[in-house]
Amino acid sequence: MRPFTYARAATVDEALGALRDPGTRLIACGTELVNWLKEGIETPARLVDITGLPLAGIDVSDDGGLRLGALARMSDVAAHPTVRDRFPVLAESLHRAASAQLRNMATIGGNLMQRTRCPYFRADVELPCNKRLPGSGCAALDGGDTSSHAIFGWSNDCAATFPSDLAVALAALDATVTAVGERGVRRIPATGFHRLPGTEPARHNELAPDELIVAVDVPAAPGASHYLKVRERASYEFAVVSAAVTLHAEDGVIGDARIALGGVAHRPWRLPAAEQALAGIALDDPAGLRAAVARSFTDARPLPGNKFKVELAQRAAVRALRTAGGVQ
Ligand SMILES: Cc1cc2nc3c(=O)[nH]c(=O)nc-3n(C[C@H](O)[C@H](O)[C@H](O)COP(=O)(O)OP(=O)(O)OC[C@H]3O[C@@H](n4cnc5c(N)ncnc54)[C@H](O)[C@@H]3O)c2cc1C
Ligand code: SF4
């Protein structure tokens, strides 16, 4: 680990001022960043601690929407009574992430800013990885293990997936990330906050280097909702694939539904074609649900190691819809 200096920001303006120096990185609770320092993924000259900023609120607006402060802890949001009652998809996505110890520390903003778990990106020896060292190649696509990689939206430069559970729920909820920078406030839809790799895999998301996340806003009335996480062990494990769904149904028939998948792309992957096809389908019609969901898989491009994700992700989406609708 390289030496760095450490300071605490007392105000948002102080944190933004510190970001003018390109050698500065913000640190919230450090559950991700400290790993990157140890692994050499980040080598900042200066860390600025933002945990003293007044950004930890969890507020319910008059219309029933939510405002989650960027520094709200994952466990506090998951346990909030309104979140549990009206936004179960959100509570479940947080509750199934990481471990209890991590959730007690880690923040909402830090969760959205985490980076891929691609083993070549995280390796402690230098391996070809365009995300870590632009232009160095891609060890995964060049004959490596692609079992944890993308089936949608990948490029010839990178096929990594994004590991946050929360981000998948926020995409299904049509949430918005609010950022501030020296040029003012910017509201970024959660569906577009994370980038596809394209030719610039080293750019992980749309936050500019001089910006800070202050909050996440979740609109009211998502209807019934559920987060299904498929993983290799029952706790403390990242998703192989996951599905976040919200739906309004009457007499067991879907009026409208939204679906976002995790573990299949470099950002939460919404299924617009499936969402359109689901209107009018009964929740107790598994074949109808499956056919609707399949509409969004015609452009899936699995890699040699992850063909199983095409089937798994469709099954996860159907099961999440049925669970949200109270049908087993
Ligand atoms: C072993 C392990 C298992 C995990 N499992 C899961 C899992 O199953 N599912 C899941 O979703 N997550 C998982 N995580 C990720 C975990 O949720 C994140 O580590 C955590 O949310 C990061 O929050 P933090 O406050 O510690 O961020 P930090 O580590 O302090 O910061 C991480 C990054 O976010 C930036 N940042 C933090 N706050 C802001 C802000 N307000 N504005 C701009 N930038 C900011 C920092 O500059 C840094 O780049 C796991 C992590 C670990 C270590
Ligand atoms: S998939 Fe992306 S993160 Fe993984 S080795 Fe290739 S370039 Fe790096």
Task: Give a quick precis of the structure.
With 328 residues, the protein is of the alpha+beta class. The chain is 27% helix and 20% strand.
Outline the fold blueprint.
Blueprint: E1 5-8, H1 12-18, E2 24-27, H2 33-39, E3 46-49, E4 58-60, E5 66-69, H3 74-79, H4 81-86, H5 88-95, H6 100-105, H7 108-112, H8 165-172, E6 176-181, E7 184-189, H9 190-193, E8 212-218, E9 224-230, E10 241-250, E11 253-262, E12 269-270, H10 272-278, H11 286-294, H12 308-324
Parallel strand pairs: 1-3, 2-3
Antiparallel strand pairs: 4-5, 5-8, 6-7, 6-8, 9-10, 10-11, 11-12
Flavin-adenine dinucleotide (FAD) binds next to strand 2, helix 2, helix 6, helix 7 and helix 8.
Written description of the protein model:
This protein has twelve helices and twelve strands. By secondary structure, the chain is an alpha+beta fold. Among the domains are: 45 residues, Uridine Diphospho-n-acetylenolpyruvylglucosamine Reductase, domain 2 (2-Layer Sandwich); 101 residues, Enolase-like, domain 1 (2-Layer Sandwich), CATH 3.30.390.50. The strands form three sheets. A five-stranded antiparallel β-sheet has the order 4-5-8-6-7. A four-stranded antiparallel β-sheet has the order 9-10-11-12, sandwiched between helices. It has a three-stranded parallel β-sheet with strand order 1-3-2, with no helix packed on it. Helix 2 links the parallel strand 2 and strand 3. Helix 5 runs antiparallel to helix 8 and helix 10 packs antiparallel against helix 11. It is globular and about 60 Å long. The structure holds flavin-adenine dinucleotide and iron/sulfur cluster. Iron/sulfur cluster binds next to loops. InterPro entries: CO_DH_flav_C (IPR005107), CO_DH_flav_C_dom_sf (IPR036683), Diverse_Substr_Oxidored (IPR051312), FAD-bd_PCMH (IPR016166), FAD-bd_PCMH-like_sf (IPR036318), FAD-bd_PCMH_sub1 (IPR016167), FAD-bd_PCMH_sub2 (IPR016169), Mopterin_DH_FAD-bd (IPR002346). Keywords: Oxidoreductase.
